[in-house]
Amino acid sequence: MPEYKSNVQNRLVSATRQVREIEMLYKVSRILAAGTHRQQALSDVVEVLEHELGLNRGTITLLSPDGKEIRIEVAQSLPEEQSRTVRYRIGEGVTGKVMQTGNAMIVPKVSEEPLFLNRFERWNVTREDISFICVPISIGQEVIGTISVDRVYDKTVSLEDDMRVLSIVGSMISNDMRARREEGLRRQELEDENLRLRHELEDRFRPDNIIGNSSSMRDVYMQIQQVACSDTTVLIRGESGTGKELVTHAIHYSSRRAKGPFIKVNCAALNENLLESELFGHEKGAFTGAVQSRKGRLEEADGGTLFLDEIGDFAAATQVKFLRVLQERQFERVGSNRTLKTDARIVAATNRDLEQAVVKEMFRQDLYYRINVFPIFLPPLRERRDDILLLADHFVEKYSKKMSKDVRRISTPAINMMVAYHWPGNVRELENCIERAVLLSNDGVIHAHHLPPTLQTSDASGTIGTGSFKHRVSLFERDLIVDALKRCNGSLAAASRDLGSTARIIRYKVRELGIDCRKYRTKRG
Description:
Layout: H1 2-33, H2 38-53, E1 56-63, E2 69-75, H3 80-85, E3 87-89, H4 93-101, E4 105-107, E5 130-139, E6 142-152, H5 159-204, H6 215-228, E7 234-237, H7 244-253, E8 262-266, H8 272-280, E9 281-282, E10 294-295, H9 297-300, E11 305-309, H10 316-328, E12 330-332, E13 339-341, E14 345-350, H11 354-359, H12 365-371, E15 374-377, H13 388-403, E16 409-410, H14 412-420, H15 426-440, E17 445-446, H16 453-456, H17 458-461, H18 469-487, H19 492-498, H20 503-513
Parallel strand pairs: 7-14, 7-15, 8-11, 11-14, 16-17
Antiparallel strand pairs: 1-2, 1-6, 2-3, 4-5, 5-6, 9-10, 12-13
């Protein structure tokens, strides 16, 4: 009779546990289906394990992106600051062993298990014995993490049942992680496609004569596209050598005036009298040396574009006369009373601070407002470092053809020196440097010693003896990976084999160092 009662009681206990397991699994499924943030969802899951089944100190670990260590994602009853400091290597401790083998482990008494590291220090194994269970979280054949719990040692409790339930929860988590990963990939693909289409749209408006893909230059391209279709006066601002004349060409040849004349006047190269004659023209005998009548640039540019370079150097008298041109589109030649009209579009450029010149009364305020209708600011080269390599490659190709030399590429140390340099002369200085380097190269490669001395010194280039140890190591790693990608035509898998590493680690490094593999998929020649 006692044996019968014992069997009945065991069956009741077993049935009760099964009901609690089903209720627990239902709650876990509801949590994972809710679509909350991953860490919050996992934290709620381990809470349910504790409340429903009495499994304590639930912990979920995940493999780091580089695959080198195991990190704590959720640890019940453990401060977040402490959980961040706990790390495992693959194969280290019970958790590391489960991650390495992909097999669950049961530790009946942690005090008798040498693999158990107790890094959390959440219990004193000399006071009470603890049972520990750890199961893997896998996506296909890839183990991406573990889930572990513990309970006070009780020989009457079936740890295999706990492991079975925990394995089911681990499978549910892995399915959720797979869905999140696939959703993340789909979202990334959509973002990449959106970015690609946006860049394609922007590329439609990118002038063929201007090199650069940086965000600041894309803004310039959009401004060119917006203003080209009108006759609005444009003021191009920027330091010397940034390519203001190229932007003017792009505006002219993208407008309805493309078939009309493009006339340029360098205002800084002429004195006041010569500039006035150059702009407005003169009649015969208007001044000494005027042996015949001559059209001015305003007349020559009729129906086209007049580019006034360095307009900040206009003399005061010329400013007054040119103001009338902007207001009424009328002028008189020097020495003539006959009023002429012009349909020339005015595009001005300057590297001066016109606002400061207005304050100092060196530039008329009314003229400033007349020419500053649609300003376009060209960023200096030091603020668009992403474009340095594109520009350098363009100039290498240009001068290789011009000099009939087979220069194929720029070495990584030379690239680093160019990127680190501050380029006070902007694109014009870069072009001159590349012209010199192509001339000096004799092996088809531009090396660091081919660059001018201003780039080779540590003070000027900032490439030698600066930065922390971690920064220098990152630069070295970047050089190794970039050189491998160049050798392997941009193939990440081939570069990984070339470096004797795995594609996963190299892919992680490529993302961390911001390397664009697509740059190297087409061999330069």
